[in-house]
Amino acid sequence: MDISTTSLLANQLQTLDPKATAKETATKIIQDAADIPLSLTAQKSTTTPNNAQEVIGQLLGSAVSEAKSKSTIFEILQHNQLFKNMGNFAEDIKNLSSIVKMDSTIAQPLALLQLFSKSMDQIDTKMLQTQVQNSGIFFESKLANMVTQKGVTESLQTLSLELQDHFEGTNKAIAPLTKEITVIMDHLNGLQDLSSKEAQSSLKTLLDLFRQSVKQELSTEGTSTFKGVYQNVQKLDYAIQQMDLINSKVTNYPASMKVEENFTTQVKVLLEMLKENLSALELDDLQPHIDQLLSKGTLLKEPIMSAGVAEIAQPLSEESVTEEMALNKEKALMTTLSSALNANASTPPDTIEEALHMVANRIKQKIEILDSKTIQQADFLDKSSTLEQKIHSLIKPELFVGKAIAQKLSLDPTDVELLSDMKGVLTKLSDNLQSSGQNKEALEITNRLLTQIEYHQLVSYVSSSTHLYIPFSWDGLKGGSMMMKQSSDEKFHCQIDLDLEAYGKLNMMLVLSGEKYIDITIASEKKELGEKITQQITQLKRSLNEVGLITGTVKMLEYKDVSVVKNDYFSGEKLQFGINIKI
Hints:
By secondary structure, the chain is of the alpha+beta class.
């Protein structure tokens, strides 16, 4: 996350018209902030701040004016006692519902706040993404994008070129459709606001025309000779890509799940279907080698094991001899496959995975020679799917609040998007409570919640990461936060800090690499919790497998209080977190 100077300044503007609509307010925030000299927000206070809100205000000014370095501000945020107990965000949201005096000015924001209250047991991928996006951390960024339409022009121009290139050389029968697509793209390029009703209607028409064009192009080209074969080869390629994940599941799941057996069966079915087409592909020489693969009990790649000195020194048992014979047989199979399958390769395959990959490549290469149209159609279909997703991404999804609720609460259409954000709703609620002057306790809680959001925004800015509170209610959770950061080596780090009523504090660091490999380090304050986690490690690995992730290492370490351990997010490769572990 990168909070711009404009966004930081926007947090400090206190002279907005209370009668203005949310959209007018957003426009004024961005436009006015861009014109304010930095010195105006960097004036040193002559008084000592006595609450978290005042400290945040001063630190924002220091960040904008660069009066303090990012690392210095980060240290203050981590160690200032005013930030040690800012309350439980989820619990404060619940409490507001019970103490706020209901009236017409409060009904809307209060109802919207209740939409943000999600229980941890309801969590799924989509909900997590939605809660993070609408947590308030990105509020100013949303406002800036609304006012400036940042990136829209570039996106449309890129899409226009990609569509033109995609339909170049296609059948003339679809020319009328592609001409209509060009007209719509020209029209969209002339609009200032893609969120307008006119633009959204045009985008939906564009999507429909694009789908018609793709369907007509594929139908006019006719069915290619080896379409079915190529589809099976693509399925085999996908199965090969999943072998790491399947191996992880074999380790983590009970034998009764038959993970290895089911995978092997699926791959063998694909090999059988491919074998039926070898003669038509003029690849009869592949049949005996595919037969050898089919004869194997498992088609998972063999794990690479390293033996210790003591193990090597031990005499071979009868079982070891059997294993050695099996390995020699495997090696012989690989040698046979290499001579027939990989004439152009410099090295023979060392694993079953490589052998399967070579089989797939030989068949794809032959299809390219005998019927290139098969490959062309498959590529056209893949690119069509990518472009369809790009067009679809420009069409506004259902808002967080939903149409039915927006109508029920009589929300102004121009305000709905802003009020789909936690910070937007809290800001509106704070304004309404301040105007009525009837409930000081509710106003205090609301402002405390806003301060928490701004705390996380500032931490995000000075740590070049995304830092936020736990956006879910959870019985037994006193408080918590998450920090996500991408390091220079293309790894993604997620630090999770929890404070649990029964089990004390818990720190976790998750490191994702290669899009699917995850390493986990956990430190619990109480030994009892550490033992419970250790007992559930296998279940944790299974859950990660279910979402396509492969666990590498899972370590349990001694807990160290984050208040006495330096958190250094500014040392490049030496990334650390609360329990002082260098990744």
